[in-house]
Amino acid sequence: MLDDEGARIGAVFTEPVPQILVVDDDAQVRHLIIRYLSENGFRASGARDAMETREALANGDIDLIVLDIVLPGTSGLELCREVRRRSALPIIMVTAKSEETDLIVGLEIGADDYLMKPVNPRELLARMKAVLRRCASRAVPASAVTQRLMFDGWILDLSRRELLSPGGAVIDLTSGEYDLLVVFARHPQRVLSRERLLDLARNRLSTGFDRSVDSQVSRLRGKIEEDGKPMIKTVRGAGYMFLPVVHRL
Prior knowledge:
Layout lengths: L18 E5 L3 H13 L3 E5 L2 H9 L5 E5 L7 H11 L4 E5 L4 H9 L4 E4 L4 H15 L12 E4 L2 E4 L4 E3 L5 E2 L3 H12 L4 E2 L1 H9 L9 H13 L7 E4 L3 E4 L4 E2 L1
Parallel strand pairs: 1-2, 1-3, 3-4, 4-5
Antiparallel strand pairs: 6-7, 6-13, 7-8, 8-9, 10-12, 11-12
């Protein structure tokens, strides 16, 4: 678990702000890291396992992975090897002292750096910044791949963080509403639990029973659902589903 060393480290970046994917099956650790990174100038989201990691990478908006070695199913080592076969995306491995041998293997198969548990947040930030600086010249940020998403005549401009109505008007969205809509637009026609939505959109410590996401969804519906046409479906006991077909421009 994270220690409480506390003092925030100022992180100054030019746009786009780096997007960090935290891969750990321990929800408490995952949320704590996400919240700390968010408070220190990064965008951050989480994944519990290999399947969610592949899903996040497929969306093309990740600049660095913080990857735990021990994961359910596909291990962090196999996931590191899989990512490295396809790209030079920076990877920082996280391991317990008892897994040092695995750590060496991780570095051999392409991890850029490592951290021992318990994770020190100050050290994590320092290592992330160093890795991002080293890797800046060897890879184009994935966030530059897709800049606009279109659904039912609406256009979500990721570079400007703007939503345009079918009539071309800019829709006023709060930061939370915008982030939530981006998650929906990148995961169309899939059921997303509250915990998953909060992992991807809010970047803060929360639980799957946190109902704040319900109010965010309600406000977002009021801004994008015209003439009674539903866009966000409530799936009882499971979460929400974004109904429109989404096109990448």
